[in-house]
Amino acid sequence: MDTQDDAALSTVAGAIAEPARTKMLCALMDGHARTSTEMAVIAEVSASTASAHLARLKDEGLIKLQTQGRHRYYRLAGAHVAQAIEGLMVISRNSASAFVPNTPTRLQFARTCYDHMAGSLAVQLHDHFIACGWLKGNDSYQLSMQGEQAMIELGVDVAALRTQRRRFACACLDWSMRRPHLAGALGAAFLQSALRREWVTQDLDSRALGLTPKGRKEMSGRFGITIEGQ
Q1: Does 229 fall in a domain?
Q2: 210/98 same-domain check
Q3: pLDDT one digit per residue (tens) for the chain, 230 residues
Q4: Residue 83 domain-assigned (yes or no)
Q5: CA 200/CA 197 separation, integer angstroms
Q6: Distance CA 48, CA 158 (A)
């Protein structure tokens, strides 16, 4: 890494480090776009201060602005930013001590991580996919023949996913569990399938996902995952 790279890394790290900007980035992790007014409320700052923070994040390539008519919305610049933030969340924990998750219960169980599923449910699904031999590889995955058939049966257009410019499938370290869940185009498609089949529901005002009675039955019968207390 040369001096120019060092300076660029420091600049981006500085943009993330400010507490109000960190709150903004974490709020955008659910993949939803938000206005500057909403971001000001989330970050607990004035409208003018929020605008300055958003401009800094945009200049550093961490978020992007989307204009629709008279409205201006902000969203994360892409899945790579979400994955970087998740990684920083893991690093920020004190690894020298025993890890005890302190994430709110509903978010710890299931939530969105940008456009894919995170939380203990997602970690268990990832482990099941690996144990069944559906996913092949280390961190960057491909589907086995059995895995591809299983995803097709779930309504996932695997062939279309392979044409996307993003990574097909990869491990994303879950900051509440410190274990990987499934990300990439396949992870996003699986979440959409779960929503479409009404296995999970998505909160309108948070990243939390709720497991439906139908979803509980499918998790047990199809994936061998027994959910208690949810």
Answers
A1: no
A2: yes
A3: 556 667 888 888 888 989 999 999 988 887 778 889 999 998 999 999 999 999 999 999 999 998 877 888 898 888 788 878 877 877 766 554 544 444 556 788 999 988 999 999 999 999 999 999 999 998 899 999 999 999 999 999 999 999 998 999 999 888 777 789 999 999 999 999 999 999 999 887 678 899 999 999 999 999 999 876 55
A4: no
A5: 8
A6: 45
Same domain, 102 and 208: yes
CB distance 65 to 40 below 8 Å: no
C-alpha closest to that of 167 among 132, 129, 137, 202? 137
Residue 88, domain member (yes or no): no
State how far the alpha carbon of 196 is from the alpha carbons of 53, 84, 113, 150, 215, in Å: 36, 28, 18, 16, 11
Domain coverage including residue 110: 93-223
Last residue of one domain, picked from the residues 50, 77, 104: 77
- What are the backbone dihedrals phi and psi of residue 225, each rounded to the nearest 5 degrees, phi first? -105, 115
Torsion of CA 54, 59, 61, 64, to 10 degrees: 50
Burial class (CB in 10 A: 0-12, 13-18, 19+), 105: exposed
Of the candidates 21, 44, 77, which is a domain's last residue?
Answer: 77
